[in-house]
Amino acid sequence: MLAVAVDRVREEGLLLDYANIELEDLIRTAGVPRSTVFRIWPDRVAFVADLVRALFEADPGFDTGFDGETLQHLEQAVAGDPQAMSTVEGRQIALREALRITVSHNMTAVEHTVAFRAYRAMSAALSSGDAVPGGEEVRALLSEIEDRYLTHMAETYRGLNAAFGLRMRDGVDERDLAVAIMAMVDGMSDHRRINPAMVDAPRVTALGPEGPRDWHLAGIAVYGIYTAYTEAIEA
User: Fold this and answer.
1) pLDDT digits (tens, 9 = 90+) for 41-72
2) Cβ neighbours of residue 120 closer than 8 Å, sequence gap 6 or more
3) CA distance 89 to 94
4) What is the CB neighbour count within 10 angstroms for residue 113?
C-alpha cells in the first residue's frame, strides 16, 4: 500500500488536501486484502501519517539536504588547494567557490526530489487553515523530519567551519545557521515556482578578490548568511 502510494505521489505529486490518496483505490491497485489494510490503518488519517514517513524514507537525500553530485562538489572544494587553504584569504576564496557551485546546483536538484515536493505540499496544506486529514500527526512528523535535517546540517556546517577556518559568532551556533539557510531556501523556492527566471537568472558579481563570477541568487544569499553568522579564525 505504501509503495503504491509513494509511486502515485512520484507521478502525480501530492495534492494539498491529499485528495489523490484514497484507501479504496490504493487497495485495488495494490491488490491487498481490504480487511488487513483497515486493521493496520483504521482510516485515511492513520495511513497519511505513515505515508508521509514513507515518502521521506524513499528519498534519503532529503535527510542530508544535498544530492550526491552536490556532495561531490562540496568535498572537492573542501579538499581544495592545500597552499591556498593555508591562508585566511585563500580559505575565504575557497568558501565562496564552494557556495557558488553547490548552492546553484542544489537548488535545482533538491526541488526535483519527491521528498522536497511532498514536504512543500504538506507544509502549504498545514498553513492553509483548511482541515487536513491527519493534520496533527503530519505536523508532528514534519517537525521530527525538520529536526533530523537541522541536526544533520548543523553537523555539516560544523565540518565546513573547521575546514575553512571559521567559527560561529558569539550568540549563535551551527543549528541557528542551519535554520536561517533552510528558511531562505524555502522562501527562494516559493518564488522560484512563481517566477523561475527572476530567481535563476545568473548574477555576475564580485564578492572577493577573485573578481566577477556567475552566481545564483540563492548562492549570494547563502554566502551573506554564512558570513553574517561566522567569523574567520586568524592563523
Assistant:
1) 887 777 877 887 787 777 766 656 666 777 77
2) 186, 189
3) 9
4) 19
Position 161 scores a pLDDT of: 94
Phi/psi of residue 232, nearest 5 degrees: -75, 145
Q: Write down the pLDDT at residue 67.
A: 66
Give the span between the Cα atoms of 37 and 35, in whole angstroms. Answer: 5
Compare 160 and 18 and report the one with higher pLDDT.
160
103-112 per-residue burial string, b: 16 or more CB within 10 A, e: under 16:
bbbbbebbee
16-25, 145-154, 172-181: which range is least confident on average? Answer: 16-25
Q: What are phi and psi of 166, to 5 degrees?
A: -120, 160
The mean pLDDT of the chain is: 83
Please tell me the distance from the alpha carbon of residue 191 to that of residue 177, in angstroms, as a whole number: 22
